[in-house]
Specification:
single chain, mainly alpha, 12 helices, globular
Length: 239
């Protein structure tokens, strides 16, 4: 174990393999017992935290060896252009409803995040990190950095939002009279981004496609609005 701590290359290899292995284990577990707490997005981080604590490894040591995995989010962001192209007919037909849902959902998400953070008396960096919580991780981390938040914290908030969002979303879909694929997809894509999109594909192919489309549109809108939001928040802080 001393050799692991003293050898950066070995440390990077060890934690990279552990991260991928824990995610694969979580994915298999979720396939066998599908519920929110067996999601690989819950299982993998918990196992990594337990492993890091037992080996007395800091977050800095962990991320120094696995930062290349975070770097993979960049090409993933570019790949989001594919569902937009594939669903171009759907966008052209429903664009007023989609844009309205994205705008209203984004505003409500940010206002609720800011209000909750203010109610709990959180610090400025935590507030700014919490704002993009309803945007999928690649976009959320970019937005967080642009407005002065901590991208790593934002990634955690996005994870929590996704898991809780899809859990609450399932309940809402069972009690609300939402029968159309458009309504169901928008609810899951706006409320639970990538996790909601995965759930949407389990329900129906069209629901999953709409959820994925909404997730991408929300990300693009918020990335484009991030500089303006940053200036607005800076002006509010000066008052």
């Amino acid at each position: 174990m001393t050799m692991l701590k003293n050898d950066p290359l070995l440390q990077a290899l060890f934690w990279s393999v552990m991260t991928i292995a824990f995610y694969a284990f979580g994915k298999e577990l979720h396939h066998r017992r599908p519920c929110f707490w067996t999601s690989p997005l819950v299982v993998a981080p918990l196992l990594l935290i337990l492993a890091a604590l037992s080996l007395h490894v800091t977050y800095g040591q962990y991320i120094s060896g696995t930062h290349w995995l975070v770097g993979m989010l960049a090409p993933a962001t570019v790949a989001f252009a594919i569902p937009i192209y594939e669903e171009r007919v759907l966008i052209s037909y429903h664009w007023p409803l989609l844009i309205m849902g994205v705008l209203v959902g984004s505003v409500i998400s940010m206002l609720s995040s800011w209000g909750l953070a203010d109610l709990l008396g959180l610090s400025r960096s935590l507030r700014l990190s919490l704002l993009p919580r309803s945007v999928t991780t690649p976009f959320a981390m970019i937005i967080s950095g642009d407005i002065g938040g901590v991208p790593q914290l934002t990634a955690v908030f996005v994870l929590i939002t996704g898991v809780l969002g899809v859990t609450i979303g399932e309940v809402l879909l069972s009690v609300l009279p939402l029968q159309s694929a458009l309504a169901r997809g928008v609810l899951l894509g706006m409320g639970a981004h990538a996790v909601g999109t995965a759930k949407g594909h389990q329900i129906d192919k069209e629901v999953g496609a709409i959820a994925g489309l909404v997730m991408v549109l929300v990300g693009l809108l918020n990335v484009l609005a991030a500089p303006l939001l940053g200036h607005l928040l800076a002006a509010i802080q000066k008052q």
